Amino acid sequence: MSQQVALLQAIRAVIEAAPLFTPAIPRSGKPMSVRMTNCGPLGWVTDKERGYRYQATHPVTGKPWPAMPLMLLDLWEEVAGYPHPPEACLVNYYAGAAKMGLHQDRDEEDFAAPVLSVSLGDIGVFRVGGRSRRDPTQKFDLRSGDVFVLGDADRLAYHGIDRILPGSSDLLPEGGRFNLTLRRVTQPS
Ligand code: MD6
Ligand code: FE
User: Fold this and answer.
1) Assigned superfamily of 2-183
2) Taking the domains of the chain in order of start, what are their residue ranges?
3) For residue range 88-114, what is the model confidence (pLDDT) as tens digits?
4) How far apart are CA 84 and CA 109, in angstroms?
5) Range 134-157 average pLDDT
6) How much distance in Å is there from the Cα of 171 to the middle of ligand 2?
7) In the chain, at which end, N or C, are there fewer CB atoms within 10 A of the end residue's CB?
8) What does pTM read for this prediction?
9) What is the DSSP string of 12-68?
10) Which numbered atom of ligand 1 lies nearest the CA of 92?
11) Ligand 1 atom with least separation from CA of 114
12) Does 161 contact ligand 1 (Cβ within 6 A)?
């Protein structure tokens, strides 16, 4: 629990430097229900005109993303089983009714690196299937403090968040859920 509080503090500092923004779906421009920001040398962003991509600066402030908290670099080293550091930590915030449709994470160059996720706050009902959108899916709860890895054969598995369960954690006074995903973006040379 104290580690969750410490990580939450670090994420609050990230958000102060790089405010949460509302991402938009490519082409349609429809807003996503989560709000997001990033830390680390690169960040994942999306908008109507330019679509899904990684870039070194915040789309609203134009400033470089804040540094990745040491706790997250340590966690990656402990869990990822990949010999290079992560380059992006995407921070998603789910307020009451936010969700995330079934998707693959495939904007990275190196699928040999896993994507590592950490959840803070209310429970997220996570759904995960196979590499085809039509594969059967299973769902389970991601609780505050859970660390979840999509790697190896599951690296390109479809996954999403059906909903969050409001009031299921006391960690965030404002309620809702943060999900952090750590990614290696570029191919190490
Ligand atoms: C979420 N997670 O938990 C959404 N992506 O809010 C993801 O999209 C995700 O949990 C890649 C790897 C692990 C994940
Ligand atoms: Fe994902």
Assistant:
1) Alpha-ketoglutarate-dependent dioxygenase AlkB-like (2.60.120.590)
2) 2-183
3) 999 999 999 999 999 999 999 999 999
4) 13
5) 98
6) 23
7) C
8) 0.97
9) HHHHHHS--B--B-TTT-PBPSSEEEEESS-EEE--TTT-SEEESB-TTT-PBPPPP
10) 6
11) 12
12) yes
